[in-house]
Amino acid sequence: MVLGKVNSYYLCKSRFHWNIVKAVFVILYCGSIRYPL
Hints:
With 37 residues, the protein is an all-alpha fold. The protein has one domain. The chain is rod-shaped. It starts with a helix and ends with a helix.
């Protein structure tokens, strides 16, 4: 029971983390297209 709660907590946390990483990649990708270095 506790293990399931901890597991779902980490899964939710990692999913939230991946959303941030994806958003950063999209921003960098769009920014590099709009403003080439």
